[in-house]
Specification:
This protein has 2 helices and no strands. The protein is mainly α. It starts with a helix and ends with a helix.
Length: 76
């Protein structure tokens, strides 16, 4: 394999592995929120607010991984 292929392979792996954690985290956030809403529907406001906040923080980690993958693909 040449250097360009290895660079693209590294960028793809960095992006996919880096986005795997936030994807699993968002799934767990959704499951937790739905279980909490099922047990206590009156607390919908605070549960949804916290779910959206934590979801945004998890998405930020995925965006960081995307930026690193793009940088790896463009450099060298």
């Amino acid at each position: 394999m040449d250097a360009e292929a290895m660079k693209m392979l590294g960028a793809g792996l960095a992006g996919s592995v880096g986005m795997l954690g936030p994807a699993i985290g968002l799934g767990l956030i959704g499951i937790g929120a739905m279980q909490a809403l099922g047990r206590n529907p009156e607390a919908r406001g605070p549960i949804m607010t916290n779910m959206i906040l934590i979801g945004a923080l998890a998405e930020a980690i995925g965006i960081y991984a995307l930026v690193i993958a793009i940088l790896l693909a463009m450099v060298v």
